[in-house]
C-alpha cells in the first residue's frame, strides 16, 4: 500500500494511529514531533506517499511542518489532525498544502477512510469550525 510519515507527540495517539494504518496495510514511519519528521522527510522525502501530522506539537508544529514540506516537496499529500478547535482554524488558508484536517478524537474506521481518500486523491476541503458544529 502506501508509505506514511506520522508526526505525533502523544505516545498513545501515535501508537494508535500507527497500528491502525499498519493494520490497513500501510508502512508507517513514526516521528515524535514535527522537527524529527522534517529531518526524516528531508533525507527520505521521495519515499513517502502521505504525511499525517498533529498540528500542536513541540519543536515544530504540524503547520510549520506542512509549510516546510510544501517548499521542499511540492505535491506531497499532507493531512493534519488536531483535538483543538483553535488549531483547526489555524489550518484554514492552507488548502494548497494540506489535503484535510482530521478532528480528534476519531475512530479507527474514520482514520483509515480519510487516509484512503487522501491517497486516492478524492476531493476534500478544510471546513471551518462553524461549518463543523451542528446547528
UniProtKB/TrEMBL annotation:
The keyword Phosphoprotein applies. Gene3D superfamilies: 3.40.50.2300. InterPro entries: Bact_response_regulator (IPR050595), CheY-like_superfamily (IPR011006), Sig_transdc_resp-reg_receiver (IPR001789). Keywords: Phosphoprotein. GO terms for biological process: phosphorelay signal transduction system. The modification 4-aspartylphosphate is found at residue 54. It comes from the Bacteria. Residues 3-119 form the Response regulatory domain. The keyword Calcium does not apply. This is Response regulator. It comes from Arsenicitalea aurantiaca. The lineage of its organism: Bacteria, Pseudomonadati, Pseudomonadota, Alphaproteobacteria, Hyphomicrobiales.
